[in-house]
Amino acid sequence: MQIHWTTVIDIIQEAPYTWTYKLDSPADFTWEEGAHTHLALEGFNSGEKPNKSLVRHMSISTLPGERAIGITTRIKDECSEFKSELRKLTVGDSVALFKTHSNVTLKREDKAINLLSCGVGIATFRPLVLEYLSNASGIDRIHSLSIDSSKNYLFSDSFKSLPEHQLSVQHVDNRHTYYKEVEQLTKDKHALFYVVGGDEFLKENISFLRRQGITDEQITLDKHESRAGVFFV
């Protein structure tokens, strides 16, 4: 397993309790839109066995062309050991990255793509939106639907409706409204649905989409193939 050690080059507060850690991109570190990585803090491999409490599976919220690896996450006052240590990081500190992979690259099948997210999960979709705007070939349109009761919407510079590019963005603050909007989206029986959020959110969405006649093949989760199967039962 290759481990890339890199440094924090910037820390940006996106919203209350939400930060983006921008990391220097090593020359041999590559990724695609929708990628995730394992972010490890110093000391995680100092013992005989890796300290898993200092490692977390995180989405990358940037594209390679931005020349920085962005990790966007929410850190509440009461948080895990990992988040507590992450909060202590400053510019210049070292972190490690490994096992980088993308489960949610854009499918260019001449169909509409709907991006369904909850809270900070929308960070996973930011690179997809940027990639679509730079190359829309094979994609009919993109609609982003996010549920966030805080109303502190992330990346508003990227997530904004652009009718001329067939990009539409919608935020709602409750699940009742959210599922009414999802129901409208399922009227296109050929559309693709990408879903990012907690496990219960994923299960709820799969169940709802199935009831509306959407097949499992039309649903993409930010989960490795070996783990995605447990959600489609």
Automatic annotation (TrEMBL):
Coiled coil: none annotated. InterPro entries: FNR_nucleotide-bd (IPR039261), Riboflavin_synthase-like_b-brl (IPR017938). This is Ferredoxin--NADP+ reductase. It comes from Alkalibacterium olivapovliticus. The lineage of its organism: Bacteria, Bacillati, Bacillota, Bacilli, Lactobacillales.
